[in-house]
Model the fold of this input.
Amino acid sequence: MDKSIVKKEYKQTKRPMGVYGIRYSQDGKVYIGSGTDLQAKINRHKAELKFGSHRNKELQEVWNSLGESAFEFEVLDVLDHEENPQTSPAEELHVLVEMWIRKLEKAGHSIVSL
Done:
């Protein structure tokens, strides 16, 4: 197998993009964010939290006191790559985040944007 072909195929693979949430059950707070590579974003948050270096100090403090088992990482919405080629993914992700913030607030959650 040619490594250069595999590498090229990997780089051309479209990653799921969309909106994700990080929640813990203690107070119903949901940390919400978006990304063009959802799994990479979620993995980055987990790594930062595990190493004690997350940029959101409140989230880090809760992680430190409650531990990983108290958290749920979830994909809330996935953006279709082919939906509308005239709009930028960043614009569409922004609209999706706003939509999810309203939806979760309506359900009684406190929202923090990441």
Notes: The first helix runs from residue 3 to 12. The chain has a mean pLDDT of 88.
